[in-house]
Amino acid sequence: MAFSLGETRVIVTSNPDVPKEIFTSPVFADRPVKQSAYSLMFNRAIGFAPYGVYWRTLRKIASTHLFCPRQISNSEAQRFEIANQMITVIAGLKGQFSVRDILKRASLNNMMCSVFGRECQLGSDESDELSRLSEEGYELLGKLNWGDHLPWLAGLDLQKVGSRCSKLVPKVNRFVNRIISEHRDRAQALANQDFVDVLLSLHGPDKLSDPGMVAVLWSFCERGSEL
């Protein structure tokens, strides 16, 4: 069954071959960029960037330097430490509490260690700040925005998606650019490089602009808060 949600075409099917084709066919490689995704710079990150040279470059960088077996193996001690912190936090709680919230913070902390090279305790000021930014970004990204489907409504910003994104992005830029600047100012041994160091060390066609680095780093942290 097919119908239109404003100017967006929608397909409803119970045939498993249809989603299989959508996920594997290059015809559907480009993901529609929502207003919130564009405003939050995700159009420059791997999740929403159009399929092409830039997207393949991002994929190569991520698979080579962040999600490769060697990197995953090297971060095993980090994951054990975060798991121990999580157990300690749970042991100190009384009454009812949300395990999901603790798991989300632990997941985000793991990404923060891998991406930024930060060894943050659960509940630290920096971890809490990133958690707040990621939570709001995740909410905006998943929010049904009628302006995406009815473009003539976009300028009215009836759901305040645009205005909230405009307030969030400067905070994200300050947070991520501060960490990038700290990495630029320090001498980092090759063996201890984190993902920010890797991005800063790239040259030639693989080198990303500062806004591109912010978008990529922010998107990975945002994904770290999904649970």
Automatic annotation (TrEMBL):
Gene3D superfamilies: Cytochrome P450. Pfam families: p450. Its cofactor is heme. SUPFAM superfamilies: Cytochrome P450. The keyword Heme applies. One of its GO terms (molecular function) is iron ion binding. Belongs to the cytochrome P450 family. This is Uncharacterized protein. The lineage of its organism: Eukaryota, Viridiplantae, Streptophyta, Embryophyta, Tracheophyta.
